Amino acid sequence: MAEDQEPQAPAEPEPEDVEDIAEEVPEPPPHGRIPPEEPPAEGQRPVTMADLTIYDTLRFMVGLLAQQAWLRLGLQVAPGMAEPAVDLAQARVAIDTLEAIVAKLEPNSDEGERRELHTLLADLRVNYIKKAG
């Protein structure tokens, strides 16, 4: 760039461009309600609880119990809390319950999932022993 030329600022959008953009932004739902999802395609029906297998539910529970165990071990801070809270009795219940669920899931799991579940249990157990010791 030559020294006698000043850098130019990018051109601002023309007013009609701004209006086009504003039209593309959806209005927020009234009263904070989430708008309903689009209806299923023709020939399809929405997924319901009846569509989930017991194994799907157990996998969901694994996530919930693992999260509770990490919180109760004091290794994660609960949302809204300033510091972790340790409750080893509750951590123990969560870990023991996870062990029972993993035993029920194993026959219906592939090798990769079994490895992940056993690693999760081992990590929780080691951390429990460290906290309890």
Query: What does the average pLDDT come to?
Result: 82
Radius of gyration over alpha carbons?
26 Å
**Count of distinct strands:** 0
| Helical proportion, percent range | 40-55%
Give the ordered list of helices and strands: HHHH
Word description of this protein:
With 133 residues, the chain is mostly helical. The protein has four helices and no strands. The chain is extended and about 60 Å long.
SSE layout:
Layout (H helix, E strand, L loop, with lengths): L14 H10 L29 H19 L15 H18 L5 H22 L1
Helix pairs in contact: 2-3, 3-4
Which key phrases capture this entry?
mainly alpha, 133 residues, 52% helix, extended, 0% strand
Summarize the structure.
Helix content is 52%, strand content 0%. With 133 residues, the chain is mainly α.
